[in-house]
């Protein structure tokens, strides 16, 4: 095999062998970062709507909408095992608009609620 082909093959092998698993999420017992107040406001809005469980857009004040994402499966195991979770967006927007990374996750089993500003890489307890 020509030397150039061996080099290319070695580069591809190195590229695919260095892919690592994502870092574990961090779970914090309180929330003092930017965005916590908005997450608490969103929690109160979802509470007034009765914490819908189906994935759907829901009317929000001032002509906006917010998305309830349905069940959160805790696949990474960062939150308590054996519990049931629902996830909700925190920032209203026009119906059908792109969703951002900010979510609240409600533990249906205990009522504890976490804010995740980075799509489940970090959790901050807000309730």
TrEMBL record:
Keywords: Hydrolase, Nuclease, Signal
Keyword Signal (UniProt): yes
Signal peptide feature range: 1-25
A UniProt-annotated Pfam family: Ribonuclease
Domain of life (superkingdom): Bacteria
Protein name, UniProt field: Ribonuclease domain-containing protein
């Amino acid at each position: 095999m020509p030397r150039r082909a061996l080099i290319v093959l070695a580069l591809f092998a190195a590229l695919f062998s260095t892919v690592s698993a994502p870092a574990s999420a961090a779970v914090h017992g309180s929330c003092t970062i930017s965005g916590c107040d908005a997450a608490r406001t969103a929690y109160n809005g979802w509470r007034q709507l009765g914490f819908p469980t189906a994935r759907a857009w829901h009317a929000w004040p001032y002509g906006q909408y917010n998305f309830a994402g349905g069940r959160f499966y805790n696949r990474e195991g960062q939150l308590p095992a054996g519990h049931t979770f629902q996830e909700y967006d925190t920032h209203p927007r026009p119906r059908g608009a792109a969703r951002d990374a900010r979510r609240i996750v409600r533990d249906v089993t205990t009522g504890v609620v976490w804010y995740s500003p980075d799509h489940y890489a970090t959790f901050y307890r807000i309730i």
